[in-house]
Design goal:
The protein is of the alpha+beta class and about 400 residues long. It is built from 6 helices and 12 strands.
Amino acid sequence: MSNVTQIYSIVNASVADVLGSYAPRAKDTTSFVDMGRSLAEAQKLDAFFGALACRIAKTVEFVRLYERNDRRVIADLQEFGAYVQKIYTELPDAVSNPVWSVSDGQNPPTITPASPYDVDTTITVTTAIFGKKGTWSIEIVRPTKQIKEAFLNESAMMAFIDAIYLTVENSYNIEVEAIENLAVATAIANSIENGKATNLLKVYNDQATVSLTVSNCLKSLDFLAFANKTIDNMRGYMKKPSKIFNTAGYTTFTPNAIVECLTEFASASKFYLESNTFNDTLVRMEGFSEVPYWQAPGQSFSFEDCSTINIANVDIKNNGATPPVATAIKQTGIIAFMRDEEACKAYFGERDTWELPNPRQRTVIHGEQADVGYAVDPHANAWVFYVADEA
């Protein structure tokens, strides 16, 4: 049976619709729009003799390289050693200046000498060790003999083999990105559990004449302007030394905070807020990056799924038993996360590729082995912004 179908009637009907003779009518495109079939389903005989095999004119590999987002997490990977040690120093307190107490100011003066050796305070130094790592592999086998029969020349076959390796690379990139999402979500969970988070909707409703809900706040120009301003203010506050913005109560500052906004919030700000403002530079928050979801998109990229983190980490929250069991921290409605670049970082990472031919079966076994270890540092500034209806 031929793979060609007469479609003149569809052409004529479609032209009539295009020219305005009819309203759009249903059209069956099955005969000429191919959604792809397996070779077993395709009719592979010629249209004249019904006996000759129709040849494949061209083979096209639909594989493109996926590049994961740069979230400034994988920045300082170490391949050697087992741990990274971070040192923290506490600010010393101010004391009296002995220059102005050397004399009592009388005539003759009474001199009170101060020995330089009486200084007995020093800088308080603490350390933390980071060294946890996770590991996984990707392993495939490909034939060298059988695939020659599927192609007519070496270049076409090599294009197919390249597509295989590109698929492996995509798998690795997607896996690393997914693990990185969990690392950032863990930093978010740590901030939420320790009170370093702002319910923007509650703060807004406390001073608004008309209260909003999660379902309609991202359509409110007033709320979007308030949210953008509040987030941008926080970035300015973090530039000054403070103990407020990290869970360890450590005195530090963040000159260039990483600001990540959920796509739903960023899009709402762009299309509702900026488009209704004469001078959008007055309301636009600069220097942020978008993330489509914090942990996973669910099945429909709904706001509820994309804005949710659900993380269990025994070092953040546990049941207090011996040994302790991690208690999950779940939060929905997260629209932005601001952090120091030291708040979430990959300290350890190694990727090793190996390949081994099997001459007996004429196959090639290819493997990718990956190690990665992330650190969430409570001493670094990090703050979560979310929206939630009050109970």
